[in-house]
């Protein structure tokens, strides 16, 4: 079992993050909160808890990245969703992503006002999953006026090489964005910067949290075992960030004046099994 973090980040932690582009934060949620998030995620996939307009994408049938179907609203009850976004609309996930430790990290990185570009569920269903090629999280294809710098990733299940854990190239964030447009890198760039001997598999226990620099080269494979690999990933950014195509668009504020409140988040459909 991974240790639960009870204190904030030290200067040594920040220095390590600056060097490697990632930092293990230990477990942040209590066991009760982790169990709640696991159940809520399955309930959202199965349609027991639903939010109109929440982006949902089913997994590919082949495991090939190019075969991932286009997403949209919730389509059918299934535990084989690859991605579900806008989880800040759910009270349980919002409460977790507003944890004081995450607030401390965001305040140091961005200042007082902090929003989310996306708060999403990433899934590699049992004996399934889609290969995600080496990529960075940023660039013009995100359509915003500044690049977010950090993502906080939480394993909802034990993540191993066998079920498609994340693979990273430590220190690769120092390269900057390798492509200002496409977030996946070219085969030539992969040969230059992501050789197998330089990469590291980030296996993680259920509940373990990783702080990631968005420019860190990372990828993941398929799930070869009968246990899912569910994760909750939140990309935090400056509250002043705006959409290039629609400057009036406001991203959800999670820290600072006007931040979302968990008590105000209500699903459109909630099936009470009690």
Descriptive report:
The protein is an alpha+beta fold and 274 residues long. It has one domain: Jelly Rolls. The protein is built from five helices and 14 strands. The protein has helices at 11-20, 31-45, 91-97, 100-110, 187-193, and strands at residues 22-27, 49-50, 56-58, 81-84, 114-124, 132-135, 150-155, 166-168, 200-202, 208-213, 218-220, 229-238, 253-255, 269-270. Strands 1, 3, 4, 5, 7, 10, 12 and 13 form an eight-stranded antiparallel β-sheet that branches. The longest helix has 15 residues, at 31-45. The chain is globular. The relative contact order is 0.23.
Helices, strands, pairings?
Elements: H1 11-20, E1 22-27, H2 31-45, E2 49-50, E3 56-58, E4 81-84, H3 91-97, H4 100-110, E5 114-124, E6 132-135, E7 150-155, E8 166-168, H5 187-193, E9 200-202, E10 208-213, E11 218-220, E12 229-238, E13 253-255, E14 269-270
Antiparallel strand pairs: 1-10, 2-14, 3-4, 4-5, 5-12, 5-13, 6-11, 7-10, 7-12, 8-9, 8-11
Main beta sheet: 8 strands, antiparallel
User: What percentage of amino acids are in beta strands?
Assistant: 15-25%
The number of domains = 1
CATH topology: Jelly Rolls
User: Roughly how many Å apart are the termini?
Assistant: 30 Å
CATH C-level label:
Mainly Beta
The overall pLDDT average reads: 94
Note poorly predicted spans. none
Named CATH architecture: Sandwich
As a percent range, the share of helical residues equals 10-25%
Number of helices: 5
**Gyration radius, in Å:** 18 Å
| Shape estimate | globular
- Sketch the topology as an H/E string, one letter per element: HEHEEEHHEEEEHEEEEEE
- What class, by secondary structure content? alpha+beta
**Quick one: how many beta strands?**
14
CATH superfamily: q2cbj1_9rhob like domain
């Amino acid at each position: 079992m991974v240790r639960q973090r009870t204190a904030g980040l030290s200067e040594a932690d920040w220095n390590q993050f600056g060097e490697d582009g990632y930092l293990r934060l230990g477990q942040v949620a209590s066991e009760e909160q982790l169990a709640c998030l696991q159940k809520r995620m399955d309930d959202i996939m199965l349609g027991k808890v639903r939010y109109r307009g929440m982006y949902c994408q089913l997994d590919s049938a082949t495991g090939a990245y190019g075969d991932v179907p286009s997403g949209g609203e919730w389509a059918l009850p299934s535990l084989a969703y690859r991605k579900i976004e806008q989880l800040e609309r759910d009270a349980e996930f919002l409460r977790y992503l507003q944890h004081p430790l995450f607030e401390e990290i965001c305040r140091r990185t961005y200042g007082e006002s902090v929003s989310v570009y996306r708060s999403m569920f990433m899934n590699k269903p049992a004996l399934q999953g889609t290969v995600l090629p080496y990529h960075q999280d940023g660039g013009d294809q995100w359509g915003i006026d500044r690049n977010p710098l950090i993502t906080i990733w939480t394993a909802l299940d034990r993540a191993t090489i066998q079920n498609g854990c994340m693979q990273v190239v430590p220190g690769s964030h120092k390269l900057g964005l390798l492509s200002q447009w496409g977030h996946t890198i070219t085969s030539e760039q992969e040969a230059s910067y992501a050789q197998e001997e330089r990469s590291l598999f980030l296996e993680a226990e259920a509940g373990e949290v990783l702080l990631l620099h968005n420019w860190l080269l990372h990828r993941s494979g398929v799930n070869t075992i009968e246990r899912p690999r569910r994760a909750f990933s939140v990309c935090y950014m400056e509250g002043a960030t705006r959409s290039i195509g629609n400057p009036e668009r406001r991203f959800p504020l999670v820290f600072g004046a006007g931040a979302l409140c968990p008590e105000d988040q209500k699903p459109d459909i909630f099936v009470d099994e009690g």
